Amino acid sequence: MDATRPNPDDDDTYIIEDTGESVEEIEREMNAAAQEAAAATEQPEPSAAEARPVDDETAQLRDRYLRLLADFENFRRRGEREKADFYKYALAGVLKELLPVLDNFDRSLEHAEEGDDFHKGVLLIYKQLFDVLQKHGLKPIDEVSVPFDPNIHEAVIREEDPAVPSHTVTAVLQKGYFLHDRLLRPAMVKVAVGGAEH
User: Which of 81, 101, 107, 91 is nearest to 184 (CA)?
Assistant: First the structure.
């Protein structure tokens, strides 16, 4: 077989030399060289022992990722809940300071003569103020003839009354209030004792 090499006198022409090799031999050599090059670039398949640490590491990373994702989701939910609670109870301080104003309205309405213009004017202002506060979540604790509940009542007077079941609220001396479902101030009450138990 003749091999080619560039002609030094002309860039576009080649000189053919006879090397004595057949076309089949040259093709075999080229195929062998190509196979060697391909084998050199291929990565060998990892053995089972080599693959196990990689699988373990992958499982650990996946577990850490899932835990981190769950922690983030819990953090996000907690943040949303705290934000909602903040907006829900943000007025607690202001409403607490307004409670004595409501108490004074209650006292003035008790002592004013019902039906006169002063009573009507005070009642109108009181109702207007109370409606606004109720719209923002204020709820009164003013029920009588209910069992005494130390969570929402503060007993300031005990009254012996065998006709009434023991530990019953017989009078509300000062209203208590909730802001939504949170106690803002307990009600000051008179409690009957000496009667039958509930």
Answer: 91
